[in-house]
Each structure stands twice: as C-alpha cells, then as structure tokens.
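@channel sequence for tomorrow's demo:
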Amino acid sequence: MDTTARATAETSQRRGRGGRERILAAAGVLFAAQGINATGMEQIAEEAPVSKRTLYAHFRTKNDLVIAYLQGLALSGATLEGVLTREDIPPRDRIRELFHPSVPDAAPVRGCPFIDAAAEFPDPESAVHSYARGQKLRMVELIVPLVRELGCREPLALAHQLATLADGAASRAMVLDEADYGRHAWAAAKVLLDRALPGMS
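structure tokens (generated this afternoon):
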C-alpha cells in the first residue's frame, strides 16, 4: 500500500465507527507490553488509530480509560478470577484452574492485571487502585461458595488462603517468566484443601 492509500485508509478508520473499541484494544496491547504509566494517551491514539479529540471524547482522563480497560478484562472472563464463574466445570476443578495459566502460550508470561494496576497506582484511594482491590475481594467472594459447596466449615478463611496462593503464584510466574509456576502453589493448596475438605486430593 502506497503512502497516499495508507493515509486515506487511516483517515477512514479515524472517522469510522468503533473508535471506543479500537481505543480499548490498543490500550490493552500497550498496557500489557509496557505498563500503564509508561503508555501515553497520544501513543494510544496513534495505535488505535483515532484523533486525540476522539480519544478524549470517549475517555475524559487516562484514569477513565484504565478503569474501562480493567472492567473489560473483568467481563471477558480471561483473568485469574474468570474460571471461578464457569458453571460448566465442578467446583473442585474451578479451584484447581486458579493455579493453571489462563493463557498457557503467552510470551512473556503476564501476571494478574489487577495486581499490576494496583502496583502502578499505589495510592489506596485512587480510582484504579480501588477498582483493583474490588476485583481481588470479589475473587475471595467467588471462592467462598465453591469451598462451602465442597463441605468446608470455614469457607471464608480457606477462600482467603487459596486466593493468596493463586495471586502469589501468578505474580511469581510473571517475574520468573514461567507459565506453569502455579504447580507449586497448587501443591500447597491441596494440603489446605485436604485438611478442610476430607476426601479431596
């Protein structure tokens, strides 16, 4: 494609519909590759591609864009917590899947996006950190009914323990770039489950 044709195509994309979706898709790629704070709004607009006017029409601030990006991840079911809502697999298997990589072939390995976002926005009162905290609390809330269904007498305590192991494993998998690092945390989780849920292995 020559320069003129490319420019015409890009102009058509900028003026076309779907700008919000393109912005979120571009932000997702850039945030995952280089981090949220290292990614500028101008870079996102160029990658989308949309004009900066269109970008700010959809997202008044970068925080608004980051929250929308995180909300999209939460709704996609592709995060660590996503497997917990799958009703097509038994409770025990959902818990075990917490310790398996959600994207087995990802290179490099990515950790939990909510933990990553909270680390980049360390102020507990910030909107991004608050949203990330809400998702981590939701993770525990999703585990509680699963272990209760399996017969645990203290489901909240066990849910916190399992969530801590899963989050820790995801973070270490990212740091070490080792996709199946969760196997170590699953070994510890099975000990907890064996004690709380007789007959489980």
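heads up for whoever presents: Residues 127-149 form the longest helix (23 residues).
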